[in-house]
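Our preliminary data section would be incomplete without showing what the modeling component actually yields. Below, a chain of 283 amino acids is followed by its predicted structure, encoded as tokens that our downstream tools consume directly.
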Amino acid sequence: MPYCTTPMNIELYYEVSGPEDGEPLMLVHGLGAQMIAWYPGFVEMLEGAGFRVIRFDNRDVGLSSKLDHAPDYSLLDMAADVIHLMDHLGLSSAHIAGQSMGGMIAQQVALSFPARVRSLNIIYSAPDATFRLHDPAIEAVRSRRPSEDRDDRVRHYIEQERISGLEGFDEAWIQAFAESVIDRSYCPEGQARQSAAIAKASPRLEDLRKLSMPVAVLHGRSDPLLSFEGSIAMARFIDEAELCIFAGMKHQLPPRLWPDFTAIISRTAIRAGAKLIAPAHVR
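Predicted structure:
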């Protein structure tokens, strides 16, 4: 299996797909999420648009290293993981798209290593933890610790994902996908350590003024976890950022909007000079 070992001896599991001569696009996922949650249908659309897609498991989730005996880490450390993976793949730079916590990591990559980022897409994310929404009912579900029983873990995963939004997926697919996630890796302690990294991160709004690469900021108007106001604030601070707020969208990439997200990511890359041939579904 493909692994990148960082200078800190952290193993990052990754997969690369799409045209070999495509524009490199690094996808960075969110809190506790494994790389397989970049849904295959969406990845195929990105490949069809001309991207060489790179997905990986962040530290502490999926098939990457679990850091139960390591010191606390930061979003900057997680951003450095992205750079180490790019080095491993021989990429001097890449387009980056990150969702939720992955959007925070992507921001940090762009701020700390601007020469390595061709274009940046920040998807239902925030400049800091102050834009997190606090609904007691949602927090009760997300904080519940399932039993050791596999089926209970699967049910809890589905329960959490329904909060984020599972629009456009049938029940059989949802059940099979949840089982694949739990069977691939289960590490709630790793998610807690990632959450701690988010909590201690400094606000980035003022720093975002420094970004000079093309940037798109995307969010759902009905996001129950992170306020879309955070994305509006980021777009105001980033010069010439494209801001897209989707009515009815929660904390998820629903299939009905995959063509739109593909189009936006492609447009942002083209603004950076990418030579993409947009397929018919890219508007």
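The first helix runs from residue 40 to 48. Confidence is low (pLDDT under 50) at residues 279-283. Preliminary results of this kind motivate Aim 1 of the renewal.
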